[in-house]
């Protein structure tokens, strides 16, 4: 076959001698290179060649050519990339929005592995949380005490439990010791108030304190905590509930409406349930002859008894979707029903997260990227307001905001990498812990300085005016970022 015949055959087939099409497969224009001059489509067909398919993925999403390294290198110089991009020299850099998406996704993907709650084989989180005192609850108990003996008994019981917990969980000793100091301070304040209120002298105070310590050495007679078995516990709970019901039945209609008898019954049931779980856990431990796993303890019930009313309260009473719902007056009923369903989910997930701090950490990590995406246009708006009259449009400020957040994400990524390296290297070389801390500290210190220098170089104002604008923008930005993160974290906990 002659050369001219081959050429005609190739043309009729649509392909040249090198196997590439001679005409664009999209618009049929004659090709004179690797890209169509009419529509810009590449000569390579990704569905016919695996190498071209992978190349297109990286080219379209990552743009892993020389520009990524040039962009990352120039980002180390505050303001250089933003200045060059705004000056029209854009071809050498990756577009800021694309780079921001990639860097933020990578950063917070790595964060999921780098940030975690440390555990210890001799320390169980559930056990520690059962013995850690919630200071708000302690204050309430101290204020309710009506005698020095009662305060001293309460102090002795709580401090004794905390010291037992500190001995069993050395890793939590500092936190528990801080709780002990707070308990001691609350007890001393209440004793001083009772001494002045009741006109007690030093001898009387000492006698009552000794009586309180004696009472603390054994469970209160008739209390649910003193029940030695489930049968006795059931009898004591029924007696307490019967007493509350008798008070309710004997009360006037006005007193019955203003008093929370249902709450008192709920507290009795809750305390009995916690004590029943303690008895079952103790029995299982004795019968199995081994320390129970956290999952096994949870099957026997909840043993944390220091939050009688739960974390949510409205109108001075615990939240309840039927008897005491959260209600927005100007919302329709279906919207309020939806709101209370979300509150219920949030309450349940909050209880889960209180027992597993890792859930809080992951919810926070999950909320920050969304908050940053939300804050980029807001940060650009703050720049627009602060630099009104500069002649720059909103989109130019948006470029500065994007490159600022890209650098922040890169700095956070470097911190997370140092954390991962610390986990891997520190067990073999203790000195790396110091190096990791130094590196993270320097990164935190450099971030605000970097942003200040970037603002100075991009906008070109004098130092006094730049510092003033930088301070105002920074305060407004971090306030709004905190609100956005808290709102998104709350939403994440509800969806957990």
In short:
Helix 15 crosses helix 16 (357-386).
Which short descriptors sum up this protein?
single chain, 496 residues, two-stranded antiparallel ribbon, 2 strands, 19 helices, 4 domains, disordered N terminus
In words, what does this structure look like?
- This protein is mostly helical and 496 residues long.
- It folds into four domains: 1-51, no CATH class; 134-218, no CATH class; 223-305; 357-495, no CATH class.
- The chain has 19 helices and two strands.
- Strands 1-2 form a two-stranded antiparallel sheet.
- Helix 15 packs across helix 19 (463-495) and helix 16 runs antiparallel to helix 19 (463-495).
- It is elongated.
- The protein starts with a helix and ends with a helix.
- The model is unreliable at 1-13 and 118-136 (pLDDT under 50).
